[in-house]
């Protein structure tokens, strides 16, 4: 069955069959970015019910974060009191400050879910000089993931109650990466540079970013080592405010599509939480709460050279 047809049928019929692994998070620490709304908040609610010792909501807006924290605390009857850490994914400086705060305030990190993302409908550059979706969805997400690896790796060496457990680093991806059959710069090490070209910008920025993100995962898996499980997860099409910038016919088309096939945030969070909890191999891509092959283009990087080249480009950007 063609991927597009399979994906649409999945949205319509498979959400009800998704279930989460058993187990709790007693004495464990969880961080979720973009967790004041949508999929991130729903994931936080799912995980809060498993009684983590600390649940960190990493958000850009403190007021919105505190409101989400209060809602989650109420849902657990006060058993879990989420903490709010500030994080602006459109700023590399903010990412670094956030990691420093984590290093200072947390003694372990068992589950990290990189959920924060945007879906722009026009070209916008950040203060760091990158197209906004490229920075938030790719560059900052990968920078944050790499900088949190030492804390995740130390946690792996500190088993709770003598029971070995591998920390999970889960990045929210999207089935839309399948719709990118080729990328400019794929063969010459300029994928990120080409994606940042304002003159070539188009409404493919979101899915293109997810494709770049998926290509970058093998190198992150190598950096994480055998004791940290790195996964990506597709929540499906979810009714959130991620596309709030849409106007006119774009807004109407999106509204109709979302009404017809979208999952709720609670449903969309299930594959993400599943990927963060399930005993699966590092590097796996998850959709509909099961391990699923990524796109043919992603699979074509058999030696990881494209993945390495993306990281090389990003390191040059981060060093500026």
Explain this structure.
The termini are far apart. The chain has helices at residues 3-13, 38-48, 62-75, 92-105, 132-156, 191-195, 205-224, 248-261, 265-277, 296-299, 305-318, and strands at residues 29-33, 54-59, 83-86, 111-114, 168-172, 229-234, 285-287, 290-291. The radius of gyration is 18 Å and the shape is globular. The chain has a single domain, classed as 3-Layer(aba) Sandwich (Rossmann fold). Helix 2 (38-48) packs parallel to helix 3, helix 2 (38-48) packs across helix 9 (265-277) and helix 4 packs parallel to helix 5. It has 320 residues and is of the alpha/beta class. An eight-stranded mixed β-sheet has the order 3-2-1-4-5-6-7-8, sandwiched between helices. Strand 4, helix 5 and strand 5 form a beta-alpha-beta unit. The chain has eleven helices and eight strands. It comes from Dioszegia hungarica. Keywords: Oxidoreductase.
- Count of extended strands: 8
Q: Give the uncertain stretches in residue-range form.
A: none
Distance between the termini: 46 Å
Estimate the global geometry from the Cα principal axes. Answer: globular
Structural class category: alpha/beta
What percent strand?
A: 5-15%
Number of domains: 1
Helix fraction, binned, reads: 40-55%
CATH architecture: 3-Layer(aba) Sandwich
The number of helical runs is 11
Name of the level-1 CATH class: Alpha Beta
CATH topology: Rossmann fold
Radius of gyration: 18 Å
Mean pLDDT: 91
From N to C, what is the helix and strand string? HEHEHEHEHEHHEHHEEHH
């Amino acid at each position: 069955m063609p991927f597009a047809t399979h994906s649409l049928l999945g949205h319509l019929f498979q959400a009800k069959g998704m279930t989460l692994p058993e187990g709790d998070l007693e004495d464990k620490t969880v961080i979720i970015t973009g967790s004041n709304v949508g999929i991130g908040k729903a994931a936080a609610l799912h995980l809060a019910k498993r009684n983590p010792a600390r649940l960190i909501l990493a958000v850009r807006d403190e007021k919105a974060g505190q409101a989400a924290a209060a809602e989650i605390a109420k849902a657990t009857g006060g058993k879990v009191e989420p903490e709010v850490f500030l994080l602006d994914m459109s700023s590399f400086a903010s990412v670094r400050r956030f990691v420093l705060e984590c290093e200072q305030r947390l003694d372990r990190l068992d589950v990290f879910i990189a959920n924060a993302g945007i879906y722009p409908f026009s070209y916008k550059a950040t203060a760091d000089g990158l197209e906004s979706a490229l920075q938030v969805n790719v560059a900052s997400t990968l920078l944050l993931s790499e900088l949190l690896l030492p804390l995740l790796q130390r946690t792996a060496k500190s088993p709770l109650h003598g029971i070995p457990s591998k920390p999970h680093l889960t990045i929210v991806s999207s089935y839309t990466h399948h719709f990118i059959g080729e990328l400019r710069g794929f063969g010459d090490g300029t994928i990120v540079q080409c994606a940042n070209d304002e003159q070539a910008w188009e409404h493919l920025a979101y899915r293109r970013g997810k494709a770049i993100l998926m290509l970058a995962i093998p190198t992150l898996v190598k950096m994480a080592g055998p004791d940290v499980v790195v996964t990506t997860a597709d929540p499906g099409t979810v009714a959130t405010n991620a596309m709030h910038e849409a106007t006119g016919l774009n807004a109407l088309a999106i509204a109709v599509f979302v009404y017809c096939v979208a999952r709720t945030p609670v449903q969309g969070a299930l594959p993400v939480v599943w990927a963060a909890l399930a005993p699966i191999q590092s590097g796996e891509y998850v959709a509909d709460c099961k391990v699923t092959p990524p796109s043919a283009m992603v699979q074509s990087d058999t030696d990881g050279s494209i993945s390495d080249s993306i990281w090389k480009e990003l390191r040059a950007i981060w060093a500026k």
